[in-house]
Amino acid sequence: AQTVTQSQPEMSVQEAETVTLSCTYDTSESDYYLFWYKQPPSRQMILVIRQEAYKQQNATENRFSVNFQKAAKSFSLKISDSQLGDAAMYFCATFGNEKLTFGTGTRLTIIP
Amino acid sequence: GAVVSQHPSWVICKSGTSVKIECRSLDFQATTMFWYRQFPKQSLMLMATSNEGSKATYEQGVEKDKFLINHASLTLSTLTVTSAHPEDSSFYICSARRGLAGGAKNIQYFGAGTRLSVL
Questions:
Q1: Fewer C-beta within 10 Å: chain A N or C terminus?
Q2: Could you give the percent of chain B with pLDDT greater than 70?
Q3: CA A40 to chain centre
Q4: H or E element that contains B34
Q5: Where does the pLDDT of residue B61 fall: very low under 50, low under 70, confident under 90, or very high at 90 and above?
């Protein structure tokens, strides 16, 4: 079984600043993957970044990076130089046993 | 690449009627497609997993006779909500996974979702 916990229902950040979204997970799988998805007001789910659990190096995608702490089962997302287009719901997810399990999401607001 | 099209984006129907939602992978072959349901301000809940040419696997608590899933080709899966009732009103999202090896196969690409309103 897998569980994903996002303890921050809402976050806000000033434009151009940096924000970190938290995520913890639990899984019985030995081989699993972690994802951050973004859901803007259009409700289209967009893949932001992914991390293979067997890799120690933290994944980065342009302004987005993760802090993956496997022993602590923590997978936080850092957004640098926040932009207005980053405003969305962000879902952390773990893939294991052939299915994605999502957290409850964090609504990110960008303050101009 | 990796575009998933979902149609319709919004459907309104009368109670007791059936509604079909289509999910197509436009530029890749999807060996596996997934159907999710999302209530307002909540997360995505997996309803079922469908593999091309075989019966769908439903999650616990999901009525297979209510939510019929067909995955007849590598690019098309359909979800039919049968005898819809107001409590079936929700946002339904499909996703598709490529038939690739390694970590890339675990990436799911999502459709834009379908809002179902049952009167």
A1: C
A2: 93
A3: 14
A4: strand B30-38
A5: very high
* pLDDT > 90: percent of chain B: 71
Query: Position B92: which residue type?
Result: Y
The minimum CA-CA distance between A55 and chain B, rounded to whole Å, is: 11
Residue whose pair of structure tokens reads 């995955």 in the numeric block: B71
Which pLDDT belongs to residue B1?
Answer: 66
CA B109 centroid distance within chain: 12
The CA distance from A11 to A27, in Å, is: 26
Best to test chain B binding among A39, A45, A46, A48 (most B CBs inside 10 Å): A45
| Residues paired with residue B35 on neighbouring β-strands, in sequence order | B48, B94
Q: Which of B5, B10, B44, B58 to mutate to test the interface with A (most CBs of A within 10 A)?
A: B44
